[in-house]
């Protein structure tokens, strides 16, 4: 989607859509899949679909309940981008490409999660690169092929392994630095100042949270040496690398400091005092106030999640509950909170308890849509949408097209995915599978870690058979459970009726 370009012909056609649906104030949400754009309108009496007659990009226009459906045969990403532009909706400011809410306010948690999504959105290429590099680093340095890791097979392989290890750490640093840039970009601030704030708060002269948590500079409440402020023991030299929520907070503080500084319309004063004070004041607020509080927040969050996901008793309560909730967390956007936790775990411990669960989620979602496709195998329009979406989920771990394009419309595939993911998560929890940051899909086997130093941080020891075997068993169990749960639920009367209604409403061509 990010590669789609503004097309003057598409834009002119999309302006007709705005007029045909009664203007932007008559739109509640816009939903899209691989073949259709669906616009849910507030008042159908304001529609004038005759204005779309003869359109060359919308091959057919349908009105189903309160949804105006625009069938697009090709270039749907480009058409969708131009539609957003014609509606004066900024693509950079929407949290979800597949369902855009226009005139409906969300609750506090929805606003927060949408905000996280918008901040992370420009950083997705970096996140993808981080996942791939972490996977390659694990292939060289973390996977024991029987006679040791690849990096232990020779000097050249060792050097390559070290290069990937350095690259991985550098990308973790880059991600922390780029967060202020993304926030300044979103808030229409000076992006150069955003970058500079990211650099000064992550400067290598500051001490990493890992070093502080290790006890090298004292306990969590008893800092000493270079980490403390004078003789008081108050910590000040704390790096923001890996502290995602604290650096987000500091970025917003900096944005509002810049807005305050811009009120001074005295040229010399503004350039020589006000603008430099943005970075200077942000730095001192960051290291003296937010840094120590952020360290406690990061420490508490990491320790709390690790305890909940690895404790001998708690993990059999927390993990299955999370498994049941995961598909719905994706739909509501709350999954972004877990994505932040996953990144903080990885940067702190070198591994994560979230990745095995994300993998079972993605396999379950893909399988549920595969089952829906088989159930409705005679509907070609559904297959055009479903096959690319579940294939993408299996290979890349991206489930939004599957959930928003198909699953959420039928409901029962999402329920089945919850059940299937939970079964797989119980197995990986029992077996003690830990991953590095990587691809939560069928490629997850390249991200499984067996490093004792990482497993010890989680107090986990994989049971007999090894993590690769148990991950395979978990994926198979997730697939089988989800597939038959989807088939079974589809035969229940309420879902059978819903299935027929959705096919007629969303995947018919009449």
From TrEMBL:
Residues in PTS EIIB type-1 domain copies: 11-93
Domain annotation PTS EIIC type-1: ranges: 114-501
Keywords: Kinase, Membrane, Phosphotransferase system, Sugar transport, Transferase, Transmembrane, Transmembrane helix, Transport
Any single GO BP term: trehalose transport
Cross-referenced InterPro entries: Glu_permease_IIB, PTrfase_EIIB_Cys, PTS_EIIC_1, PTS_IIB_1, PTS_Sugar-Specific_Components
A GO molecular-function descriptor: protein-phosphocysteine-trehalose phosphotransferase system transporter activity
Gene3D superfamilies reported in the protein's UniProt record: Glucose permease domain IIB
A Pfam family: PTS_EIIB
GO terms for cellular component: plasma membrane
UniProt-listed SUPFAM superfamilies: Glucose permease domain IIB
Entry annotated with the keyword Oxidoreductase: no
Membrane spanning residue stretches: 123-143, 191-207, 238-257, 278-301, 321-343, 355-375, 423-448, 468-489
List of catalytic residues: 33
Protein name: Sucrose PTS system IIBC component
Organism name: Mesoplasma florum (strain ATCC 33453 / NBRC 100688 / NCTC 11704 / L1)
């Amino acid at each position: 989607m990010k590669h789609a370009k503004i097309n003057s012909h598409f834009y002119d056609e999309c302006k007709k859509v705005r007029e045909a649906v009664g203007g932007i104030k008559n739109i509640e949400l816009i939903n899209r899949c691989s073949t259709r754009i669906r616009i849910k309108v507030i008042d159908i009496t304001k529609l004038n679909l005759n204005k779309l007659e003869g359109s060359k990009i919308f091959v057919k226009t349908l009105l189903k309940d309160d949804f105006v459906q625009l069938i697009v045969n090709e270039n749907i990403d480009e058409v969708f981008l131009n539609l957003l532009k014609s509606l004066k909706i900024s693509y950079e400011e929407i949290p979800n490409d597949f369902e855009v809410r226009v005139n409906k306010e969300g609750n506090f948690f929805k606003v927060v999660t949408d905000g996280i999504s918008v901040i992370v959105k420009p950083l997705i290429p970096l996140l993808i690169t981080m996942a791939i590099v972490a996977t390659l680093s694990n292939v060289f340095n973390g996977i024991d092929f029987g006679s040791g890791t690849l990096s232990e097979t020779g000097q050249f392989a060792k050097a390559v392994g070290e290069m990937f290890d350095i690259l991985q750490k550098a990308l973790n640093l880059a991600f922390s630095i780029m967060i202020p840039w993304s926030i300044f970009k979103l808030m229409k601030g000076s992006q150069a100042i955003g970058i500079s704030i990211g650099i000064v708060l992550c400067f290598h002269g500051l001490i990493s949270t890992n070093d502080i948590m290790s006890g090298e500079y004292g306990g969590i409440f008893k800092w000493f040496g270079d980490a403390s402020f004078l003789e008081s023991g108050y910590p000040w030299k704390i790096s923001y690398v890996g502290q995602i929520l604290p650096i987000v907070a500091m970025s917003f503080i900096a944005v509002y400091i810049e807005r305050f500084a811009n009120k001074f319309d005295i040229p010399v004063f503004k350039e020589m005092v006000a603008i430099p004070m943005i970075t200077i004041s942000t730095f001192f607020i960051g290291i003296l106030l937010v840094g120590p509080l952020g360290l406690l927040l990061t420490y508490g969050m990491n320790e709390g999640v690790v305890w909940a996901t690895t404790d001998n008793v708690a993990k059999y309560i927390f993990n299955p509950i999370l498994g049941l909730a995961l598909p719905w967390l994706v739909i509501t956007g709350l999954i972004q909170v877990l994505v932040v936790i996953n990144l903080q775990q990885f940067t702190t411990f070198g591994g994560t308890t979230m990745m095995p669960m994300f993998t079972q989620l993605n396999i379950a979602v893909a399988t549920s849509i595969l089952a829906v496709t088989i159930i409705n195998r005679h509907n070609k329009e559904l297959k055009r949408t479903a096959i690319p979406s579940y294939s993408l989920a299996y290979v890349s771990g991206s489930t939004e097209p599957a959930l928003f394009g198909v699953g959420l419309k039928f409901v029962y595939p999402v329920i089945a995915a919850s059940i299937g993911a939970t079964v797989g998560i119980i197995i990986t929890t029992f077996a003690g599978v830990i991953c590095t940051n990587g691809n939560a899909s069928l490629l997850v086997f390249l991200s499984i870690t067996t490093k004792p130093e990482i497993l010890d941080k989680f107090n986990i020891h994989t049971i007999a058979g090894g993590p690769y075997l148990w991950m395979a068993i978990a994926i198979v169990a997730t697939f089988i459970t989800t597939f038959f749960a989807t088939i079974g639920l589809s035969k229940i009367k309420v879902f059978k009726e819903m299935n027929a209604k959705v096919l007629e409403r969303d995947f018919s061509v009449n």
